[in-house]
């Protein structure tokens, strides 16, 4: 063990360990069922492993091209064209990243300068603001208000000024499960028209939308797409969050800037996994079937909570379910999440962790990307809480 001989003047004095890491550790320490951090507890498809292993055996183990292996970029281009009627150029407009987190960090580093403002919507996914601040920018908060978590475009309009460099949107939304509609995209297009504002659209849950709703990708809106970087993640789509493979789509001029940073913060993403995913993507049923797969899990989990004292909020997409716990406890949501983990044996995420001011509506987030046995065991405990 060493004691640092330099005084550390933290660049991020307000940043601690992420709530996902904290709650997963607490769950492990207490032997609780972990419905906190968002990851599946079931195995991915073995044919994905076979394709990846085949790529390794065939000798694809050296650096791939900086933007990603052509096979994967072609598969992504094909998927995006089929789903959103958008044509992204395989050479210039698609880059494979080490998950969405790196894509987001890199996009912000590439476009945000000291003094710039970036509009984010609270509750906000935890990686955006530290990335903005590390680039010298300032996060400006618009709100998605409890309980329906809809954006207020008039409010966003009032936040715009000449320092606004970027707007970050996320649909389907983590943690609330709300979706942006075609009208929302039209509003955003109207607000940004004739400006140089870049839109960063986090669409990692693009394939997980419920009740017949459609995902409205920014890619499906040509005017917005021309000013946007769109981020997705294979971690969510193919149940491989630990592989850390994702991608970015953007107009060539924007992508050229993105790649200037990407080539120096990761350079490339591991080759055999890219080839394995490319092979696996040849069957579109694998991503198209995801909504139905998770709709089944959502229904199963919601049924488990019937007869509990949790009040479930709507969940239109993602694999997260929000719930109010007012009839169970007066504790703050952080205290409640710790109590639930320690004394009931189920770990959750307190939603106040996604607010800059710690706003606490007494709402917690459950991840239902779990086997039915896990959800049933959690349900039993939660009904007794
Ligand atoms: N954005 C959102 C909204 C997420 O929920 C996540 C991860 N759960 C990410 C980005 C990061 O994705 P990745 O694991 O591919 O880095
Ligand atoms: N995005 C995942 C979630 O929302 C967690 C990812 C992480 O641990 N950083 O739970």
Provide a quick synopsis of the model.
It is built from 15 helices and 14 strands.
Characteristic key phrases:
385 residues; Aspartate Aminotransferase, domain 1; Aspartate Aminotransferase, domain 2; 8-stranded mixed sheet; 14 strands; globular; binds 4'-deoxy-4'-aminopyridoxal-5'-phosphate; binds glutamine
Task: Tell me what you see in this structure.
By secondary structure, the protein is an alpha/beta fold. It has two domains: 123 residues, Alpha-Beta Complex (Aspartate Aminotransferase, domain 1); 241 residues, Type I PLP-dependent aspartate aminotransferase-like (Major domain) (Aspartate Aminotransferase, domain 2). It has 15 helices and 14 strands. Strands 2-9-8-7-6-3-4-5 form an eight-stranded mixed beta sheet, with helices on both faces. α2 crosses α11. The N and C termini lie far apart (42 Å). 48% of the residues are buried. Bound molecules: 4'-deoxy-4'-aminopyridoxal-5'-phosphate and glutamine. Glutamine binds next to loops.
Please render the helix and strand layout as text.
Blueprint: H1 19-30, E1 33-34, H2 46-57, H3 70-84, E2 94-97, H4 99-111, E3 117-122, H5 128-134, E4 138-145, E5 150-151, H6 153-159, E6 164-170, H7 182-192, E7 198-202, H8 222-225, E8 228-233, H9 234-237, E9 246-250, H10 252-265, H11 271-280, H12 285-288, H13 290-304, E10 311-312, E11 320-324, H14 333-344, E12 346-347, E13 349-350, E14 363-367, H15 372-384
């Amino acid at each position: 063990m060493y004691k640092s001989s330099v005084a550390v003047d933290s660049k991020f004095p307000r940043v601690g360990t992420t709530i996902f890491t904290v709650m997963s550790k607490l769950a492990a320490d207490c032997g609780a069922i972990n419905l906190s951090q968002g990851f599946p507890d079931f195995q991915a498809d073995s044919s994905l492993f076979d394709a990846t292993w085949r790529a390794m055996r065939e000798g694809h183990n050296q650096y791939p091209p900086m933007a990603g292996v052509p096979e994967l970029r072609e598969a992504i281009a094909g998927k995006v064209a089929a789903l959103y009627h958008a044509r992204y150029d395989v050479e210039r407009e698609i880059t494979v990243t080490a998950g969405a987190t790196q894509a987001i960090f890199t996009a912000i580093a590439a476009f945000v300068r000291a003094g710039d403002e970036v509009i984010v919507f609270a509750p906000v996914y935890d990686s955006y603001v530290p990335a903005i601040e590390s680039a010298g920018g300032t996060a400006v908060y618009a709100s998605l208000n409890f309980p329906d978590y809809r954006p207020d475009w008039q409010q966003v309009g009032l936040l715009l000024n000449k320092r606004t460099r970027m707007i970050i949107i996320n649909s389907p939304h983590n943690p609330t499960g709300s979706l942006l509609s075609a009208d929302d995209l039209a509003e955003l297009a109207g607000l940004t028209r004739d400006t140089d504002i870049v839109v960063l659209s986090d669409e990692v849950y693009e394939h997980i939308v419920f009740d017949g709703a459609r995902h409205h990708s920014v890619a499906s809106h040509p005017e917005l797409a021309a000013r946007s970087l769109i981020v997705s993640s294979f971690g969510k789509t193919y149940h491989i969050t630990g592989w850390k493979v994702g991608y970015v789509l953007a107009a060539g001029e924007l992508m050229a800037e993105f790649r200037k940073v990407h080539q120096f913060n990761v350079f490339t993403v591991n080759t055999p996994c890219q080839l394995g995913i490319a092979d696996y993507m040849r069957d579109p049923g694998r991503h198209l079937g995801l909504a139905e797969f998770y709709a089944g899990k959502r229904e199963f989990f919601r049924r488990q909570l019937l007869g509990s004292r949790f009040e479930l909020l709507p969940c239109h997409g993602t694999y997260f379910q929000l719930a109010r716990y007012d009839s169970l406890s007066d504790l703050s949501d952080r205290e409640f999440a710790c109590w639930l983990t320690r004394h009931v044996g189920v770990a959750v995420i307190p939603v106040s962790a996604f607010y800059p001011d710690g706003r606490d509506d007494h709402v917690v987030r459950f991840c239902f990307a779990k086997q039915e046995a896990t959800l049933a065991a959690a349900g039993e405990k939660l009904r007794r809480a």
